[in-house]
Amino acid sequence: MARLSVAEFKESEKTPLVVVLDHVRSLHNIGSVFRTADAFRVESLCLCGITACPPHPEMHKTALGAEDSVNWYYVDNTLEAVEKLQAEGYEVWAIEQAHHSTLLHEWQPVAGKKYAVVLGNEVKGVQQEVIDCCDGCVEIPQFGTKHSLNVSVTAGIVIWEFFNKLK
What we know:
It is a single chain. This protein has 7 helices and 7 strands, in the order H-E-H-E-H-H-E-H-E-E-E-H-E-H. It has a domain at 24-112 and 147-167: 3-Layer(aba) Sandwich (Alpha/beta knot), CATH 3.40.1280. The chain is globular. The longest helix is centred in the C-terminal third of the chain and has 16 residues, at 151-166. Helices cover 37% and strands 22% of the residues. It has helices at 6-11, 27-39, 57-63, 66-69, 78-87, 128-133, 151-166; strands spanning 15-22, 42-48, 72-75, 90-95, 102-103, 114-119, 136-139. Helix 2 (27-39) packs parallel to helix 3 (57-63) and helix 2 runs parallel beside helix 7 (151-166). The protein starts with 5 loop residues before the first helix and ends with a helix. The chain is an alpha/beta fold. Helix 2 links the parallel strand 1 (15-22) and strand 2 (42-48).
């Protein structure tokens, strides 16, 4: 299947996207985001607050080794992580339902720019102070009775859409 080794993955060209996890509590969700980040060669994951860090056996159940291939780092305070990314030239978008959000299918990343997306806690979402600091909000349109998606599902949709628009 021509899969990359971990060493080859580390050296490969990455999708210019940092995924920030803001207080994500489920080890399975974190592992799933690692696996999706591996699939689309995301630049890195920034794990914040209560978000657990590898290695962890429960995380490994869904990451299946992606925690070894994907670059990741930990920052205690999500707001500080966002401000640091912005200072480094990243455009940072919260993935959240908010007033004046941009619908995902209308969001158009520009080639050559660096981006980060912030995904929030399974119950509370992205912290309001973090939303206020971001360059904008992106919302996934939903048409059923529920008004939210699982954070790992959201990550998959957003990462794919970003990858698809830039590749």
